Hints:
- With about 110 residues, the chain is mostly helical.
- Helices cover about 45% and strands about 10% of the residues.
- The protein has a three-stranded mixed beta sheet, with helices on one face.
- The chain is globular, with a radius of gyration of 14 Å.
- It starts with a strand and ends in a 19-residue tail after the last helix.
Amino acid sequence: xxxxxxxxxxxxxAGMAIFPFILLKSARLKxxxxxxxxxxxxxxxxxELLVLPFYILYxxxxxxxxxxYKKHDLAYRNIVFEKEAYRYETDLNYLKNGNWYGWIxxx
Length: 107
């Protein structure tokens, strides 16, 4: 099944996953397998949590991290969902191999 990809030129990041879409800042990023995989990992996470709870937990985790680290980049990079997506974005078989709820596992 193909994931719908939308180009949003004013997107504040290179890519973003908002179920069921992947949003990209530019059309050239459609060929970037790592960013597409990263965003597909987020789509899987959203499914795991039945979509809405994902966004709530994502925001709460970010806010907690912002208090803890006091810097946006550190807060963002330490969101449990981002840790999984960054860790496995280069593994193009990660989603095919199952790996459900990988964001829960500590490594």
